[in-house]
Specification:
alpha+beta; Nucleotide Exchange Factor Grpe, Chain A, domain 2; three-stranded mixed β-sheet
């Protein structure tokens, strides 16, 4: 008997049997590779479709936000428009009545502006700021140079961002 046969116990013989694995056939390997490739392709197609859906939904959401961003503001302005139309439909010659109606409408508009953080820029006596003011001309005045001495048209800001600069006249430096 050889030395290897003598050292073989029933336990090592069982281990030797388990070590012997049958190699799958090429056909089985190909089928498994094709199955995995199909799984990966399906997962990729699902992810691609999901990404396209997310992109489309985001695009739709931004379109809707852009389209309806002014919806609340517009709704508030409708009340002001209604007041102006009501004032025009009144058939009275009383100037004081018209004035009261216009003042109420102006208060209504100011309330809408306040609600939506639109503030007036009335820079009389302030230093000229090219970010908030638009100088129409420079005039000789007793004020300090580059100071706003006359406001021709108020400016407006929305959340500290200039909607319209104030049209102003600025003091010239004295010669």
């Amino acid at each position: 008997m050889s030395e290897q046969e003598q050292n073989t116990t029933p336990e090592t013989a069982a281990e030797n049997k388990h070590e012997v694995e049958v190699m799958p056939s090429m056909e089985e390997l190909l089928k498994e590779a094709e199955r995995q490739a199909k799984e990966h392709y399906d997962a990729w197609m699902y992810a691609k479709a999901e990404a396209e859906n997310i992109r489309r939904r985001a695009h739709d959401d931004t379109d809707k936000a852009r389209k309806f961003a002014l919806e609340k503001f517009s709704g508030e302005l409708l009340a002001v428009k209604d007041s102006l139309e009501a004032a025009l439909s009144v058939e009275t010659t009383d100037v004081a009545g018209y004035r009261n109606g216009v003042e109420l409408t102006q208060k209504q508009l100011a309330s809408v502006f306040e609600k939506f953080n639109i503030t007036e820029v009335h820079p009389m006596g302030e230093k000229f700021d090219p970010h908030k003011h638009q100088a129409i001309s420079m005039v000789e005045a007793d004020a300090e140079p580059n100071t706003v001495v006359q406001v021709l048209q108020k400016g407006y800001t929305l959340h500290e961002r200039v909607l319209r600069p104030a049209l102003v006249m600025v003091a010239k430096p004295k010669a």
